[in-house]
Specification:
2 domains; single chain; 4-stranded parallel sheet; 5-stranded parallel sheet; 266 residues; Rossmann fold; alpha/beta; 17% strand
Length: 266
C-alpha cells in the first residue's frame, strides 16, 4: 500500500483510493465534498455544516475536540483526516494506533494549498484538487482592495470573556494581510488575549468580530462601540478567514465586498 507523508511529517500507510473516509475537520469535510467523494465519506463531525446534505445525512462521530472512538471504529474507515490545531492530539494519536490517520497543519495560505493537493492525491482525486488549488492561488493573486481602506490598523476578535485575537503566525493573519488589513497584533503568537485598553492604546481603526468560534452579533458591536467610539466595528464571516479547504475559493470575492461594506461605515 502507498505511504504518504502528512503535514506533521508522519508516515501514513493508506489504501489506494480509500472508500471509507472519516473527516474530523469541517473545512476539510467541505473539501472532500467538492472533490466529489459523496459515497466515500462515511463520517463527519457535528460541526461539519457544509454541505447541508452531508450535515443532515452523514453519520456524526462527535465534535472536533471530543470525537467518539467507538463510532469511528464501527464505521471501519480506511482513512481518517484530522488537523493538528482543531483536533485533540491525544485523541488523534489513540486513533492512529489502529487506523490510518492523515493530519494537516495549516498556518499559511501555502499550507492550505499543499493540504488540498495532498488530500486530492491520497483520495484518488489529484486532478480535481490541483484545479481547486490553482484557482485559489489565482483568485488571491488577483485580489484587490480599495486604497482608501487599505492598511487600516485592524484587530480580528475570535472570542469573548476574555477577548482573544489572532497573532502573526496564523492563517487568519495571512488572509487579513492578503486583503490589505494591518493586524495590530501581528507580532504576537497564535491567539493572544486582549482588552479594551490595549485596543485604545494601539489605535485600533477597524475591529472585525468573527462569526466563529465565538458567535459575535450586533449586540456586541453596540457594547464595543461605546468603548471604542472612533473605531469602525463590523461583523464578519469567520469561515472566509479561517476555513482552509475549498471555501478559500469564495474568500477573495468576500474580502473585496467587505472593503466596500467597511467604506460605508461612518
Amino acid at each position: 500500500m502507498p505511504v504518504y507523508i502528512d503535514q506533521l511529517n508522519r508516515e501514513v500507510t493508506i489504501v489506494e483510493n480509500p472508500s471509507r473516509i472519516i473527516s474530523l475537520v469541517p473545512s476539510q469535510t467541505e473539501l472532500l465534498y467538492d472533490l466529489g467523494l459523496e459515497e466515500e465519506v462515511v463520517g463527519i463531525t457535528k460541526f461539519c455544516v457544509h454541505p447541508t446534505t452531508w450535515f443532515r445525512n452523514k453519520t456524526r462521530i462527535g465534535g472536533t475536540k471530543n470525537i467518539n472512538p467507538e463510532k469511528i471504529t464501527a464505521l471501519q474507515p480506511d482513512l481518517v483526516i484530522a488537523n493538528k490545531e482543531e483536533n485533540v492530539k491525544e485523541q488523534v494519536e489513540e486513533l492512529a494506533k489502529n487506523l490510518p490517520v492523515w493530519v494537516s497543519d495549516v498556518n499559511t495560505l501555502n499550507d492550505a494549498i499543499r493540504m488540498i493537493t495532498a488530500v486530492g492525491e491520497i483520495t484518488g482525486k489529484k486532478e480535481k484538487a490541483e484545479t481547486i488549488a490553482a484557482q485559489i492561488e489565482k483568485e488571491f493573486i488577483e485580489l484587490t482592495h480599495p486604497s482608501a481602506d487599505g492598511h487600516l490598523r485592524t484587530c480580528y476578535l475570535i472570542w469573548k470573556d476574555p477577548y482573544m485575537t489572532v497573532g502573526g503566525d496564523t492563517l487568519i493573519h495571512q488572509i487579513l494581510a492578503k486583503a490589505g488589513f494591518s493586524n495590530i497584533f501581528k507580532n504576537n503568537k497564535r491567539y493572544p488575549e486582549v482588552d479594551i485598553k490595549e485596543l485604545q492604546s494601539l489605535d485600533c481603526e477597524l475591529l472585525l468580530l468573527s462569526s466563529e468560534p465565538y458567535p459575535f452579533n450586533q449586540k456586541h458591536i453596540t457594547e464595543l462601540q461605546a468603548q471604542l467610539p472612533s473605531t469602525k466595528i463590523i461583523l464578519v464571516d469567520g469561515e472566509m478567514f479561517s476555513w482552509y479547504g475549498s471555501r478559500l475559493l469564495k474568500a477573495p470575492r468576500y474580502l473585496t465586498n467587505l472593503h466596500h461594506q467597511i467604506a460605508t461605515i461612518v
